[in-house]
Amino acid sequence: MDKRKYYPAAVALYLTYFILGISVTIIGQYKQEFAGAWGAARLADGTFEVSRVVTVIAASGLGRLLAFPVAGPFSDRFGRKKSALVGMLFMLAFFAAIPFTTSAAQAYVLLICGGMANSFLDTSVTPSCMEIFSENGAVANLFTKFSLSIAQLLLPAAIILSGNAGITYHTLFFAVAVLSAADMAAIAVLPFPESGGSAKKERKKDRIRISPALLLLMGIGFTSSATFMIFMNCNQELGALYGLQNPQLIQSFYSAGIIAAILINSVLIGRGVKPIRILAAYPTVAFLALLMMYVVRAPQICLAGGFLIGFFAAGGVLQLATSTANEMYPEHRGTITAMVMFASSISNYAVINVAGYLTRIGGTEGPRYILLFNMAVTLAGILLALILNIKYGKQEVR
Questions:
Q1: What is the mean pLDDT of residues 317-332?
Q2: Residues 6 or more apart whose Cβ sits within 8 Å of residue 380
Q3: Cα-trace Rg, the chain
Q4: Does pLDDT of 154 surpass 80?
């Protein structure tokens, strides 16, 4: 079957991840502005106390948790297109309404909507791209992260330029809302492949068997998400503590690391490197990068650490865990994606709440407490990946 007719749909789906990349980062980039809008107290240095903003960011993980049990079966039953449209509807609501919030409670509800958008997009985009590019499914899934990372690379520059031009943060949100509406329209009219292929007819007879390998992959979904989510949302405070003049630059180095990792990983997988090898090796280097940032207290170390965390933690580890699980259950890709991403969502909600607590109790040293916490979670991921490699390294993961 000629799948080239589905390539425009793939472009529209990758664009949803570009928009998603903005949504999961932009609140963290505007912590001070939102803290002020939501009535946060001022600190002795004149800045606003941001722990409330960090807690609100965690609501995105709660939204994912609420939606994933529905999103996966919805995608398998009603199709990837409808799942994508539901996701983009939630995304549009988030971007259009968040600039008008005057309290953390209002924002919390909208971040839940953003998390629900993430769930429906995950269970649409990952299966769809693996079905459109079936011969290179793992690489196709990596490029969802590539799209997301391009947005995160460009966002700090857009924020700096708009700030220098005197444009308020509201305008950027409205611009992305317009882009979301245009992408929704494209998804609605473009053709999509049939969900599940020939296995669709047998779906009712073939139930999902939860294997130890799948449980390990779900655990890696939890830990890999924790490593980069903690860093992505708390790196600016670390940069400020270490004397970095423009902490926003950490985000750019982080995103550059992700992009480099995805390109290199695509080559490695194309040359036969097993994804489960990457699942063990990369978190190990990420752990060493976190340790380096804790031990070496210098501004430049934040930029180097940002690149390394982007490359070795956020550069496709979660996507490779998801695609590996999808290959185990090709007839249930929407549901399997939801299961791995559900573990990721638990992580997002739990660890960002812990980070908010450490921010409150840690005072000026809070960012370093968060580094220690991140190291502990990353170490757990290394252990899970080692077990996966020892048990399944010489066979197909099932």
A1: 82
A2: 219, 223
A3: 20
A4: yes
Which of 259, 334, 380 lies closest to 86 in space, CA to CA? 334
Kindly report, residue by residue over 202-221, the tens digit of the pLDDT: 444 466 777 888 899 999 99
Q: Which residue has the tokens 């407490």?
A: 369
Rounded CA-CA distance 23/5 in Å is 29
- If phi > 0 it is left, if psi is from -120 to 50 it is alpha, else beta; for residue 396 that is beta
CA–CA dist 382, 286 (Å, integer): 10
User: pLDDT digit string (tens) for 94-110?
Assistant: 999 999 999 999 999 99
Is the pLDDT confidence value at 197 over 60? Answer: no
Distance CA 18, CA 134 (A): 22
Is the Cβ–Cβ distance between 321 and 224 less than 8 Å?
yes
Q: Please, what's the b/e burial string for 150-174 (b: 16 or more CB within 10 A of its CB; e: otherwise)? A: bbbbebbebbeeeeeeeeebeebbe
* Six-digit token string for 196: 């599940």
Instruction: Give residues with Cβ within 8 angstroms of 218, minimum separation 6.
Output: 325, 339, 340, 342, 343
Confirm if 49 and 40 have CB atoms less than 8 A apart: yes
pTM value?
0.77
- What's the pLDDT at 210? 79
DSSP code per residue over 186-233: HHHHS--PPTTGGGGGGTTT------HHHHHHHHHHHHHHHHHHHHHH
Structure tokens given for 37: 């809008």
Average pLDDT over residues 37-46: 86
Q: How many residues does the chain have?
A: 398
